[in-house]
Amino acid sequence: MEEIRRTKSHGDKSRTRRVRISDLAQALGLTKSTVSRALNGYSDIAPTTRARVAKMAAQMGYAPMPYAQAVRTGRVRALGLVLELDAPDRYGPFLADFLGGITQEASLEGWTLTVSSSSSRSEMEATVTRLLQEHKVDGFILPRTQVDDPRAAFLSAKHVPFVMFGRTDHGRPDAGHSWYDIDNAGAMRAAITRLAAMGHRRIAFVGPPASFNFALLRRDGYREGLAQAGLAHDPVLEIMEVAEREEGAEAARRLLDLPDPPSAILYATDATALGAYDVARERGLEIGRDLSLIGYDGIPEARLVTPPLTTFAVDSHHAGARLAALLIAQLRGTDPAELTELVEAPLRAGGSDGPPRTRE
Amino acid sequence: MEEIRRTKSHGDKSRTRRVRISDLAQALGLTKSTVSRALNGYSDIAPTTRARVAKMAAQMGYAPMPYAQAVRTGRVRALGLVLELDAPDRYGPFLADFLGGITQEASLEGWTLTVSSSSSRSEMEATVTRLLQEHKVDGFILPRTQVDDPRAAFLSAKHVPFVMFGRTDHGRPDAGHSWYDIDNAGAMRAAITRLAAMGHRRIAFVGPPASFNFALLRRDGYREGLAQAGLAHDPVLEIMEVAEREEGAEAARRLLDLPDPPSAILYATDATALGAYDVARERGLEIGRDLSLIGYDGIPEARLVTPPLTTFAVDSHHAGARLAALLIAQLRGTDPAELTELVEAPLRAGGSDGPPRTRE
DNA sequence: TAGGTTTCCGAAACTGGTTTCGTAAAGGCG
DNA sequence: CGCCTTTACGAAACCAGTTTCGGAAACCTA
Predict the structure, then answer these.
(1) Of A231, A247, A264, B123, which has the highest C-beta tally within 10 A?
(2) Which helix (H) or strand (E) holds B320?
(3) What does the alpha-carbon distance between residue A277 and residue A272 come to, in Å, rounded to a whole number?
(4) Up-side HSE of residue B255: CA atoms within 13 Å toward CB?
(5) 8-state DSSP, A337
(6) Was domain B78-183+317-343 assigned CATH 3.40.50.2300?
(7) Residue ranges per domain, chain A?
């Protein structure tokens, strides 16, 4: 660390000086305390004065410096996001959209996003603690909520506002947290309903490792869909622990080699569903006729295969935007228990599903 | 906007009060000005006093509040990153690693990362301007540098420190900017050298649209590699404008249907190289024997195919970390012209390349 | 019209730091 | 040993805001 001589060179502050609240006050013939209260909506300012101040502020391009405000208020208008580096799929191709959604929404309200990362729980706690201690963020967005999420417990204990992407406990009454979630089970039910309406009677399901919360939710939706459609649940047609494209292909081979193979396969993720395309090519099966497929996620590649994969298009951008909006509302005083949103993932029909070829 | 009554409720500040510089000063029997100067390395503090202060600060867990410092210094120890939402590939699977690299390095130095996004140039300028005006960041990291990048020009004009991922002008003397880059051309040369050493004489190249800067760089590397190996450059073997897996497959078909087909194909991106696997399966070709392939990027999926794709593993995490380090160094006063780094992408050998099958 | 309220603004304290400036004490020199 | 520098710290101003408090003027009411 280099020594600092008595007179520290200050860098050239040649950029035109920004307008401060005192400049604004002087221009208006008021004191800065009045201007501050006018701008912050205090009730002891005359409406006419408030309007004058607002107008002049806009005219002079005045914008308060959040850091200076933070010294007094403790709020910096910054949202925090902690990425988990040990996430096996690196958040796939969705991270950019997700971040875009958060930042665009935050930007509209004059907030910003501070991101950090951690590769273990202890590191996460250290990171969060530092961000809070340094007053760099006002609240957190938690992606990838798990059942009984340690982050939620940690932040709750510290009375730090946060919103979760995904609910921690399903069915049970909420713990008063704020969340945004996509109806995974509902999408799977809708897929089964769709396939059953087309005439499919044996529909298989291929899902990710059961350690993922969403894997269980989607599997439950599959089973519920079968029940709704009046179809029996055959355990042979349900394969879990499938994460990669190649594993998805392997699952398809096993299913098609059954004595009574399914006519349709519902994949819990697009990435694994693409493996079925490889198998279809191997075996000369026409997807959408000989074998129907439906995926989930809406990854870009799903549109590019032939025929395009029918899937549920998760809108990461929208998720990010809503999460930001929910957190900002909470930071402005809304009760977190009121800030919950459950949305449906819309179906994006490709050509990968159709009526089963009638056996003759 | 709701009215604020005269006495604003302040939220429950029940969390134990943080130690302030004045607490520290009192505990030491010094004034806060002395403590501040001791902590910031001023030369007019006795070494013994400095040590005493440092020790007590550690003991009491004192950490200055960056926002309060910022009011006076104008520096907030925050790096800015502007994502471009219109990037066609959404930064692929690399964004999480890249962000992880930046934030981990920044965190070590006590800095944080503020990200924002834009979907057009004017939006980018507005976003950057707001971040600067609000003093939310001290400098920027620019991903995806293009030739003659408008962002660099914009920030230069405002005298805002920044580092670029990728050089703007190659060959020409630098404009005094700071950058980090991966030697694209060098990797392609190395690939050709490797294939030539294995005995390949006709090596094709499949590259992305020429509007991408890196596409041209990699193509140049291919050509240089051929020249170094003493091989002729056959324009028929060079296919550009290929971005997706399916297009990569199509390119492979065209090349293999030539009267004198190549024995090896160098793909500028892994995603497109995977298309050649589909073609090999179609035609019963054994990859690594009948057809050699080398890719570039090191995407996760490249390890999972059979045989694994030989590729150049770009280390996004490292790139992020180094960019953060370069920017922080610049913000601490180092001349940006001295802060440049060119790294090689290391080869990650799979089994997709080998000696050509001898024609008989 | 006197007396009590309200309304509305200014003055000043405050936030948590940094930096300038002044000066007492210690050290160097002849 | 006296004078001139250094050394090392304290006092106070400062940064850009917010918030508390007090009081003059305007508004009611009787």
Answers:
(1) A264
(2) helix B316-331
(3) 10
(4) 30
(5) G
(6) yes
(7) 16-58, 78-182+317-343, 184-314
Nearest nucleotide by C1' from A47 CA? C8
CATH topology of domain B184-314: Rossmann fold (3.40.50)
Q: Which of A71, A158, A306 sits opposite B15 (nearest CB)?
A: A158
A46 CA, C3 C1': separation in Å? Answer: 25
A52 touches strand D (CB under 7 A): no
Q: How far is CA A25 from CA A38, A66, A170, B6, in A?
A: 11, 18, 53, 21
In strand C, the nucleotides that come within 7 Å of a protein beta carbon are 7-22
Q: Which nucleotide is nearest to B36 (CA to C1')?
A: C18
Domain A78-182+317-343 class? alpha beta
Inter-CA distances, B352 with A208, A245, B106, B304, B306, Å: 28, 19, 38, 12, 8
Task: Please give the residue of chain A at the shortest CA–CA distance from B331.
Answer: A11
Task: pLDDT tens for chain B, 360 residues: list them.
Answer: 445 554 433 333 334 567 899 999 999 999 999 999 999 988 889 889 999 999 999 999 898 988 899 988 888 999 999 998 876 666 777 899 999 999 999 999 889 999 999 988 889 999 998 888 888 899 999 988 776 778 888 898 888 999 999 886 655 555 788 999 999 999 999 999 999 999 999 999 999 988 777 888 899 999 999 999 999 999 999 999 998 888 999 999 999 999 999 999 999 999 999 999 989 988 999 999 999 999 999 988 888 888 999 999 999 999 999 999 999 999 988 888 889 999 999 999 989 999 988 754
State whether residue A301 sits within 8 Å of chain B by CB.
yes
